[in-house]
Design a protein that fits this description.
The structure is a homodimer of 222-residue chains. Chain A is mainly alpha-helical and 222 residues long. Chain A has helices at 4-25, 37-43, 48-60, 79-95, 97-103, 106-125, 128-143, 149-163, 173-191, 195-211; strands spanning 34-35, 64-67, 71-74. Chain A binds a DNA duplex (30 and 30 nucleotides) through residues 9, 36-38, 47-50, 52, 68-71.
Chain lengths: 222, 222
DNA sequence: TGCGACTTAATTGGCGCCAATTATTGCACA
DNA sequence: TGTGCAATAATTGGCGCCAATTAAGTCGCA
């Protein structure tokens, strides 16, 4: 009981950074928004020191950006870096597919099928956040089976980095339905252990998710 | 004059971390070696606070590892992560080649040719550190022309991470000579804008540099 | 003489205070 | 009424001190 304050600290070094990252993922903080240290202190029940350490970690991971004497804010990435991240993701995530087909188990594929079904349901009756979380879990589970922890980690870091943008949320219902179809096609390719096909699907998937919504991009070009 | 202390601080946040990273790259600190904060304080003329921030940053970047209440030490990576980094590097660095042949200028290729020649000279009459620096500059210059800053940065981060190992230093003179030949072959392929050939050379280059020396690997398996 | 517990020394790491910087508000003046 | 300047308020960030933890050294005991 009397350790309630202290145990909080022990966990916080990395965990607090992840909690804040999670909050950014869930869009509780929008790109461009300032993260005031005092607010975070009480919101996450942490000391100023821990908050600062967490913010610094996120700044190193490029999830947020640091402006001296101004503070930290959710990185607002421009179109050029946006495409740069997309292209890098394509290289990494397609490159992971040979490993995935080599290592993934039948059980894992079944779990993926369940997630794909859940995503399909969330498309019609779920919130944006639910859709995003299930989609994240789906892809996370795929890359978790590439047999290369470093690759998995690198992929995840880049995905987190691209969240700090307005374009990652699906713009249209059509895009959501297309994503749903992609997921099922991926499972099909996984069952056949067809790495090239999978890579092509992934490439298309990333491309679409990140480009299909250029309709709302003008707000970014400012 | 009176800002001598302060200006030091302004630079330090990121720069001090890079200075320490550089020192690790140059093997002034060996894998497994503890980085004592007091030593770093006077060695780099920084405050304890800055040293700690820099160490934390390097820990986030996985260049060093942090053990609570013990301190920071150069990460001693095991064989499995070693191969994981190698495979991820191959995916990224070969994937960058299409961008490189599309964006690199003739002047840049000439500068690469100069570096390749310098490396060839360093192989016979230079120190290990000189060889390593020229080799780094050569590859850095290549990836600087891939037209994708994010990709370049990711590649560099991974390269830094693999330094924390005994196997990155060239073991044999033969390996050095082979590296030298590879460099010239790369320039040849660059002149012909032959991306597939370049990718194949890079793959072989990484593979060899990192595997050819398994002869001294037993020291790692401990 | 070897092993274990205790004492001492060295190192790390948490945290709060205050200075430095920046944003905001209000006021005077054109 | 609009604009520029000055005072005020709020926020960030540097840093030193000391508690907590760990490693090393020492002594006693079997």
């Amino acid at each position: 009981m009397e350790q309630s304050r202290k145990s909080r600290r022990v966990v916080s070094r990395r965990a607090l950074a992840n909690e804040i990252a999670q909050a950014i993922r869930l869009r509780m903080y929008r790109p461009g928004e300032w993260l005031r240290q005092i607010d975070l202190e009480e919101k996450f029940q942490a000391t100023r020191f821990d908050v600062r350490a967490a913010l610094e970690e996120l700044a190193v991971r490029k999830t947020i950006e640091h402006v001296p004497n101004r503070g930290y804010r959710v990185a607002e990435i421009d179109l050029a870096t946006y495409f740069a991240i997309r292209d890098t993701r394509i290289i990494l995530e397609t490159g992971a597919m040979t490993g995935v087909v080599a290592h993934i188990t039948e059980e894992a594929i079944e779990r993926l099928a369940v997630l794909a079904r859940e995503f399909g349901e969330a498309v019609v009756s779920g919130t944006r956040i639910e859709q995003s979380e299930i989609n994240g879990a789906f892809h996370h589970l795929i890359y978790a089976h590439c047999g290369n922890p470093v690759l998995e980690e690198t992929i995840w870091a880049l995905r987190d980095r691209s969240r700090g943008s307005q374009v990652t949320v699906w713009a249209s219902h059509q895009a959501l339905l297309a994503s749903d179809r992609d997921h099922h096609a991926m499972i099909e390719a996984l069952r056949r252990r067809d790495a090239p096909r999978l890579a092509e699907l992934i490439r298309h998937h990333i491309d679409k998710d990140m480009v299909d919504e250029t309709g709302q991009l003008p707000s970014l070009s400012a």
